[in-house]
Amino acid sequence: MPTRLTRLSQAATVALTLALGAAPSAQAQFLSPSASTVTDVVVEGTQRIDPATVRSYLLVQPGDSFDSDRLDRSLKALYATGLFADVTMRRDGDTLVINVVENPIINRIAFEGNKRVDDEELDREIQLRPRLVYSRTRVQQDVQRIIEIYQRSGRYAVTVEPKVIRQDQNRVDLVFEIDEGELTPVRTITFLGNREFSDSTLRGVIQTKEYAFYRFLSSDDTYDPDRLSYDRELLRRYYLESGFADFRVLSAVAELAPDRESFVVTFTVEEGEIYTFGPTDFDVSLPRVDPEALRQFVATEEGETYDSTLVDDTVDAITDYLGTLGYAFVDVRPRVNRDQENRTVSITYQVGEASKVFVERININGNVRTLDRVIRREMSLVEGDAFNTAKLRRSERRVRNLGFFKNVDVKNSEGSAPDRTVVDVEVEEQSTGEISFGIGFSTAESIIGDVGIRERNLLGRGQDLRFGVTASGRSTEFDVAFTEPYFLDRDVAAGFDLFRVERELDESSYDELRFGGVLRASYTLQPDLTQQINYRIEQTEIKDVDDDASRFIKDQEGVRVVSQVGQTLTYDKRDNRLDPRDGYLAQLTTEVAGAGGDERFFRTRVKGAYYYPFDEVWGLSFLGQAGVIVGLGEDVSIAERFFIGASSFRGFERGGVGPRDTSTDDALGANNYYVGSIELAFPNGMPQDLGVRTFLFTDVGSVWGLDESGADVADASSIRASIGLGMSFTTAFGTIRVDAAEAVAKEDFDVPEVFRLSFGTRF
Predict the structure, then answer these.
(1) In angstroms, rounded to a whole number, what is the distance separating the alpha carbons of residues 194 and 208?
(2) pTM for the whole thing?
(3) Exposure of 498 by Cβ count < 10 A (0-12 exposed, 13-18 middle, 19+ buried)?
(4) Which residue in 36, 39, 41 sits closest to 74, CA to CA?
(5) Which of 152, 268, 326, 592 could form a disulfide with 250 if both were Cys (CB 3.0 to 4.6 A apart)?
(6) β-sheet bridge partners, residue 583
(7) How far is the CA of 233 from the CAs of 249, 265, 273, 397, 722, in angstroms?
(8) Cα dihedral sign for 572, 574, 578, 580?
(9) 544 and 508 Cβ atoms separated by less than 8 Å
(10) Which residue from 704, 626, 628 is spatially nearest to 667, judged by alpha carbons?
(11) Helix, strand, or coil here: 264?
């Protein structure tokens, strides 16, 4: 530190003066221009450092005179190296003697008292390392770095005291003793200069929050200068989106309260006036691009309130459109013209010159285990293709939908020539092996647990292998599934399923044993449209029917074989198949049984989903499904009917909705059903990085229709409905989903279920 260096320099100068002679006449003789010359330079006290290294920093060498100014600068140069704890100079006749005390070597660095920040993070931040030369200046610099780490996390009361433990051979152990102190919260946030929006409204815009006891899982109510800078940008965006084109944040100041235990944050703003959009124009330099063709992508309308996000949306839309024409590096810039007198903002979109571009090569980075060809075959672009932004986005979505990667970034950069581009695929792999287990609870206190082992990227080849076991007091299920996504190096996913299921169906008073297998193959008809065809062979046995079971179930007792051919047509425009937030899905399934076996039926099911995000947290989703099964010349057996409830219709047990024998309370299944769901994701006040999501939902539907009929059969097509609250969050054990639902519309013979819990883990 400067004070330390100054003190050392002063001490060294005194030592030099004393060493040169106590008598004034001797000192004067030494300092006079006619002083004798140096005949030799002797270095004493060195242990690790070569004396020649010490001499190299001196400005006085043998043959030079004893010049006090040059000797003083030599002394300072030696201290500046950081190699020495003390340096003295003295004259012995015509010999200059340099005596040094070397700084020790750091043997070990340790941290004590740190609980909120681990040793690894602190070690990455400091500059000192074992086997480096110990220096007090460097120690103080590292102390300041440690303090800054804690201050960024809101702990301004932190203190750090370095301790030195001396060892043999001029070595030391360096220990940083840390008193982390308490979090320094933000007690008050105020705004000056705001007229249009209240303080409470603006507090909701910024990320920094005032201290509240319920924010114990968040750090937003602690002072962070980086977050304060981000808050300035959030305020600017908010005002620009609200029409205030001249808005400015004049200052953002955080001051410690008098008790030094909290901060007071004050934002000073200048709102300006509200502007509206004026006319929109284009300045296009690209050949064969009609400016009027770009007007369809303009998101603004003349006369409406100015909103900067609409300008950005227009730029993105125009850029994407020109990208589909092969212009990879087109430059679209909005030129904003403010008319302060009329309070209007006119936009001219300048489209710079560019040439059509072709894909030179595709680079894939970040995949350690996954083979390149697994990623490359998902790319809609190949080397030599004309560049197309729509295909680039589709490629990124396809790679992300593999589910093998935590992050996927597909972008293009300039190639070796102006008409060439390089596509870079950056991926970050994640665990593709899963161990999952779940628990379900019903009002009847039935508990079901399941365990599954799955590898979705077997040996890095993209193959999917799954083994599952489900067990409870009433059921046991084993299943094995394997999928090769590119069968025979073609865009055909082929695989098989083997299963054995034995269940005690208390809701229907019988046991069921199923075992069999499925052969399946799926392929892409066009982008986002796939079809799967399959063949199922299965033996089903209805056994151990209770003596007091429904007569309609007793008639089903025995063994039946199903030989079924089916297909599923899927149109999938979701942004992510594993955790969709945007897009939609449509699916049609048809199945026919009768080519062998004992069953004869035709079954069809439709499913649909639509996801609409309002922002990163708020989102709305609509889900629906329906199905019909018709016997071909015979009644549909109970094993093939629809049993709806539990996860398919929250608020009701499995089979809790639909036809029922009122005399025995046995669920009979149905030939028809539909279920629709609306789910709203909303913020919960917790940090997004915790992965906690909360939902409000409602399920509406009905299950009805039997081939059999009678006075003791309750069968109604009336609408049933439930409402509920759900939460999902990620823990060390995996993702947990909790749903609590209440049936608000039901028949007397329906069986509700209030609570469901499921969770899983990854390895």
Answers:
(1) 18
(2) 0.52
(3) middle
(4) 41
(5) 268
(6) 611
(7) 9, 16, 19, 30, 43
(8) negative
(9) no
(10) 704
(11) strand
- Compute the half-sphere exposure of residue 655: CA atoms within 13 Å on the CB side of its CA: 15
Q: Which residues contact 579 (CB under 8 A, 6 or more apart)?
A: none
Are the CB atoms for 318 and 296 separated by under 8 Å?
Answer: no
Between 317 and 762, residue with greater pLDDT: 317
Beta bridge partners of 361: 422
CA distances from 444 to 300, 440, 644 (A): 57, 11, 17
pLDDT band at residue 578 using 50, 70 and 90 as cut-offs = low
Q: Which residues does 487 contact at the CB level (< 8 Å), separation at least 6?
A: 493, 494, 521
Distance of alpha carbon 499 from alpha carbon 478, whole angstroms: 6
CA distance 400 to 380: 13
Q: What angle do CA 324, 330, 333 make, to 5 degrees?
A: 120
List Cβ neighbours of 252 (8 Å cut-off, separation of 6 or more).
228, 229, 231, 232, 265, 266, 267, 268
Q: 3-class SS at 749?
A: coil
Q: 140-149: long-range contacts (C-beta < 8 A, 24 or more apart)?
A: 140/1, 142/176, 143/176, 146/122, 146/176, 146/178, 149/117, 149/121, 149/122, 149/125
pLDDT at 441 over 70: no
φ, ψ for residue 169 (rounded to 5)?
60, 35
Q: What is the pLDDT of residues 333-382, one digit of tens each?
A: 899 898 888 999 999 998 887 777 888 889 999 888 888 888 888 888 88
- Per DSSP, helices labelled H in 21-135 are 24-31, 51-56, 68-80, 119-125
Nearest CA to 92 out of 8, 12, 36, 45 is that of 36
Residue 141, by phi and psi: left (phi above 0), alpha (psi -120 to 50) or beta? Answer: alpha
Q: Report how far residue 708's alpha carbon sits from residue 346's, in angstroms, rounded to the nearest whole number.
A: 71
Distance CA 757, CA 739 (A): 7
Q: Are 677 and 723 in contact (CB under 8 A)?
A: no
C-beta neighbour count of 595 within 10 angstroms: 10
Cα of first residue to Cα of last residue in the chain, in angstroms, is 49
- The mean of the pLDDT values for the chain is 83
Question: Which residue has 């060390």 as its token pair?
Answer: 732
Report the pLDDT value the prediction gives residue 680, as an integer from 0 to 100: 94
Residue 200: CB atoms within 10 Å: 9
Tokens found for residue 732: 């060390």
**What are the Cα distances from residue 378, in Å, to 324, 397, 430, 468, 524?**
19, 9, 18, 28, 12
Which of these, 311, 385, 378, lies nearest to 350 by C-alpha position?
A: 311
Give the C-alpha distances (Å, rounded to integers) separating 364 from 359, 411, 423, 463.
Answer: 14, 11, 9, 19
CA 613 remoteness from chain centre: 16
Q: Of the candidates 654, 660, 673, 753, which has an alpha carbon nearest to the alpha carbon of residue 718?
A: 673
Please tell me the predicted confidence (pLDDT) of residue 569. Answer: 96
pLDDT band, residue 450 (cuts 50/70/90): low
Residue 60 · residue 96 · CB < 8 Å: yes
Nearest to 608 by CA among 627, 593, 594: 627
Burial class (CB in 10 A: 0-12, 13-18, 19+), 47: exposed
CA separation for the pair 547, 270 (Å, rounded)? 82
One-letter amino acid of 511: D
Cα atoms found within 13 Å of the Cα of residue 130, Cβ hemisphere only: 7
Tens digits of residue pLDDT in 409-425: 988 888 888 888 899 99
